[in-house]
């Protein structure tokens, strides 16, 4: 079977991202892979088609697979590897939970709809003590989250997580709070948050979730433990 070829520049971006996530310099990765640091710099910065042997060497140096570097695992869910040898599950305090979610990114909104439970991914920011995201007027995150009773809000769940594939570690944070549809007179304040939905389109309805409960958990490996291939 022939190997999958990356689009121009994709391979270099994946190499650079993986290297940085492992805390490696170019010189360190080049040493691991047995290639010249200058050539590694070229691969990261320019569209290139290295040999299959070079790709396999880089994959070994990055503790990953050639298929992943070439994009063959892009559409696969994270966390498919085996657990580490000595995993520890620990509870996170509120301060640590807020630290983890404060940079913003992608989270999941969980709520009840007329047809049953629904979970929807959204781009969010954490702005002035609340989760803020944008959605479309008339969509499920609009109609299904309204009580039509003034001052009453539907309590929903919001979850953010991160998976460290290399070390078999990760964390998750769960927020419970009311869904507040931001009225026009408050839009200027939340617009300053800069939240932008990747989905694009007319998503001009801002929704705020003010946390009433925040919990989190982390899976880590005890010192000296290692991931099982």
From TrEMBL:
Molecular functions per Gene Ontology: DNA binding
SUPFAM superfamilies: FMN-binding split barrel (SSF50475), lambda repressor-like DNA-binding domains (SSF47413)
A Pfam family this chain is assigned to: HTH_3
Residue stretches making up the HTH cro/C1-type domain: 19-69
Domain of life: Bacteria
Protein name per its UniProtKB record: HTH cro/C1-type domain-containing protein
Organism per entry: Planobispora siamensis
